[in-house]
Amino acid sequence: MYQLNADFARAYQAERRNEARAAQRGHQAQRARRLSRKAERANQEARLALARAY
What we know:
Blueprint: H1 2-53
């Protein structure tokens, strides 16, 4: 019985670890998209400022 509980606990922990990793990857991808959009806006503003300067 103890072995069954230990196996169940290991499987449960592994599943939780996989879920946490998946969530972390999702957050990282979301952050990357947000930073990419921010950089694109900054690039567009810089181009506009240069166009206005000349």
